[in-house]
Amino acid sequence: MLVVLKPGVSGEEIGNVRRQLAAMEVETHFIQGATQSVFALVGDTGKLNLAPVEANVSVAKIVRVQQPYQLASRAFHPEDTVVQIGHCKVGGGHKVVIAGPCSVESEEQMLHTASLVKDCGANMLRGGAYKPRSSPYSFQGMGEAGLKLLAKARESTGLPVVTEAMCIETFDLVEAYADLIQIGARNMQNFPLLKRAGKSTKPVLLKRGLSATLEELLMSAEYIIAGGNQNVILCERGIRSFDTYTRNTLDISLVPAVKAISHLPIIVDPSHASGKWSLVEPLAKAAIAAGSDGLIIEVHHNPAEALCDGAQSLKPEKFRKLMCSLKKLLAAV
Q1: Cα Rg of the chain (Å, integer)
Q2: Dihedral angle computed from the Cα positions of residues 70, 74, 79 and 82, in that order, rounded to the nearest 10 degrees
Q3: Distance between terminal CA atoms of the chain?
Q4: What is the pTM (predicted TM-score) of this model?
Q5: What is the distance, to the nearest Å, from the Cα of residue 1 to the centroid of all Cα atoms in its chain?
Q6: Which domains does the chain have, with CATH numbers?
Q7: C-alpha distances in angstroms, 177 versus 96, 166, 268?
Q8: I need a surface site. Which of 160, 188, 265, 325 has the fewest CB within 10 A?
Q9: Measured CA distances, 126 to 15, 69, 255 (Å)
Q10: What confidence tens digit (pLDDT) does each residue in 221-263 have?
């Protein structure tokens, strides 16, 4: 339920409404927009007597939100959310390209790749220190040693770093090193992990689950926002379908669909969507043309020897070509 205030209300008037709502012992979230402010009432609001609130001269209207997600809804937050990560902004017209290897493998590999992607124009650096793998025998990541190498790459290049938190046990450690904490597709509905992310002071990149609906993705984001962390970026990375030609099927329609019903920024991962480096460029262009707030792309200086996802990683020269093409595309759209 939303309590929408009249445009131009004073801080004192907002405080009066806040006190009215606090007396009802209901959980409230306040968003102050450029022209209008809103209180969102979360939980079982069906039995609340809101007549006194509706009669307040500062209140324009009370709206019942039909969707199960409220805080992630554009009805609650009409303006685009802009997430700040270091010197980068995502959302509200700000585009970002996150690039780097799937996994941190060595100091030489990480520093070399970080320098390359920055030189090509990337805004942020990605790299996995903890890796969720389908096989228990596959490379699982370097753990804290990998996080330290990411920090070293950040110090060397100035690029904010993105890395995945896989579980509650290592969340604090990842939080200490990362500028943007990724919650991967397999953990999209790991609700204890989402609740912990909601308590974090770091922005969160939430990837869509392998077979998750749009509503399920936004409900997962709702867990994080309801926990107090409003800095959430969504990521479409392909969903499972009957086709086996690509690793996953990129749902490009999710981008404009999210834009219509949610204020959260959304980026696209063409690398995991395709599983093939040759498809990364066209899918990346399609994502930007559809209105994506950015891209997350796997880049490796020697994909043939990559310990993880080499087949979908771009070589530096291919990444440079893609970045040049994206500049022209952005100017066109």
Answers
A1: 21
A2: 70
A3: 36
A4: 0.88
A5: 25
A6: 2-63 (3.30.70.1140), 83-332 (3.20.20.70)
A7: 20, 14, 24
A8: 325
A9: 42, 29, 21
A10: 999 998 989 999 999 999 999 999 999 999 999 999 999 999 9
Residue 270, both tokens: 């063409």
Residue carrying structure tokens 């399920």 = 216
Q: pLDDT digit string (tens) for 37-49?
A: 888 887 777 778 8
Q: What's the token pair of residue 193?
A: 């992990």
Residue type at 183 in one-letter notation:
I
Residue 292 has pLDDT above 70, yes or no: yes
Where do the H-state alpha helices sit in the chain? 11-23, 51-54, 107-120, 144-157, 168-177, 191-198, 214-226, 254-261, 270-274, 277-289, 316-332
Residue 115 has pLDDT above 60, yes or no: yes
For residue 254, give every residue at least 6 positions away whose Cβ sits within 8 Å of its Cβ, in sequence order, or none: 208, 214, 236, 266
The per-residue pLDDT for range 201-227, each reduced to its tens digit, is 999 999 999 999 999 999 999 999 989
Residue 196, CB half-sphere, CA atoms under 13 Å: how many? 21
- Residue 243, Cβ neighbours under 10 Å: how many? 8
170 contact partners, CB below 8 Å, separation of at least 6:
130, 143
Reply yes or no on whether the pLDDT at 137 is more than 60.
no
